[in-house]
Amino acid sequence: MKVGYIGLGAMGGALARRLLVSRPLTVCDLNMDLMADLEKRGATPSSGPAELARECDIVMLCLPRSANVRSVIFDNGGLIEGLEPGKMIIDQTSGDPAETRAMAAELAKRGIAMLDAPVSGGAKGAEAGTIAVMVGGETGDYEKAVPVFDQISPNHTYCGPIGSGQVLKLINNTISTCNRIALLEGVAVGLKNGIDMETMTTVLNAGGARSKASENLLPVLSEGLPRADFAMALMLKDLNLATQLAIDSGAPMQSGQLARGLLQLSANLLGPDAKIDDIADVIAAQAKTGFPPQT
């Protein structure tokens, strides 16, 4: 079973490197430097999506948005020109479940399977083989792809029909963003009352407020270390999708809507190059305090 990977950015590149530990891999990306790095690690470069699809049985994707996925599949020179019945696409993009379902339906008419399999746990988790993978699609297709998922991480879970993985990923990102914002607002109050960052890091991580955000972000802020290299615009995209999904589902998501609004405000203030943890500076400014500067 030959596997190809398209989209070698921060997350896709980490997932591709993880796969290279266990199997040959064909790769493709618009960024030739990223292609060259994977080639040095043993991957086989491809000239484009159509060629990669002709060479591979399973094509994996990790792209910024579902619109990019549609383009790579269906545009001129896209995967569709090289895919044959029986082949499979696994989309690891944090995308739009409705758009993914529509693409899967189009592919099914051609005898091509599709799974959505977004991940949570960061690039470090991907390279370490500990990342969580959320999979949606037909159960038989999932079972066929299990050996590949095993090579990424043992922490893969079948979530239901196509789009289910992406639904759960949007929920995951909304909850984690709410946690991050609540943490930063609380710490800002602590700073205003004379409690130092090191003390808050110790106490909050030992008590009921502990979360992934407190474990990872508080030490970074306390020591002025470089922050997470994840674009704020991409997290805002996910929260836009999540809150719209809640509206379409007739479900309340008040906390998620508030988090989405604060992300939008922060993105407007900080510009397109802002990273997700830069929201700390916006919250600190609102509280008229500040976190230790980055070294």
Strand content: 5-15%
> What is the overall silhouette?
globular
- According to CATH, what is the class of the largest domain? Alpha Beta
Would you tell me which CATH topology of the largest domain applies? Answer: Rossmann fold
Low-pLDDT stretches are none
According to DSSP, the number of beta strands is: 9
How many helices?
A: 13
Topology order in helix (H) and strand (E) letters? EHEHEHEHEHEEHEHEHHHHHH
CATH evolutionary superfamily of the largest domain? NAD(P)-binding Rossmann-like Domain
**Backbone CA Rg:** 20 Å
Biggest sheet, in brief?
6 strands, parallel
Q: How many domains comprise the coordinates?
A: 2
The overall pLDDT average reads: 96
Beginning-to-end CA distance, first to last residue: 47 Å
Order of strands, widest sheet = 3-2-1-4-5-6
What structural class should be given to the helix and strand makeup?
alpha/beta
Quick structural overview:
This protein is 55% helix and 11% strand. It has 295 residues and is of the alpha/beta class. A 6-stranded parallel beta sheet has the order 3-2-1-4-5-6, sandwiched between helices. It has a 3-stranded mixed beta sheet with strand order 7-8-9, with helices on both faces.
Describe the protein in words:
The protein has 295 residues and is an alpha/beta fold. It has 2 domains: 3-161, Rossmann fold (3-Layer(aba) Sandwich); 167-286, N-(1-d-carboxylethyl)-l-norvaline Dehydrogenase, domain 2. 55% of the residues lie in helices and 11% in strands. It has 13 helices and 9 strands. The chain has helices spanning 10-20, 32-40, 49-55, 66-74, 97-108, 122-128, 139-152, 164-192, 197-204, 212-223, 232-249, 254-270, 279-286; strands at residues 3-6, 26-28, 44-45, 58-61, 88-91, 113-116, 119-120, 132-136, 156-160. The chain has a 6-stranded parallel sheet, sandwiched between helices. Strand 5 (88-91), helix 5 and strand 6 form a beta-alpha-beta unit. Helix 8 (164-192) crosses helix 12, helix 9 (197-204) packs antiparallel against helix 10 (212-223) and helix 11 (232-249) runs antiparallel to helix 12 (254-270). The protein is globular and about 65 Å long. The chain starts with a strand and ends in a 9-residue tail after the last helix. The model has no long low-confidence stretch (mean pLDDT 96).
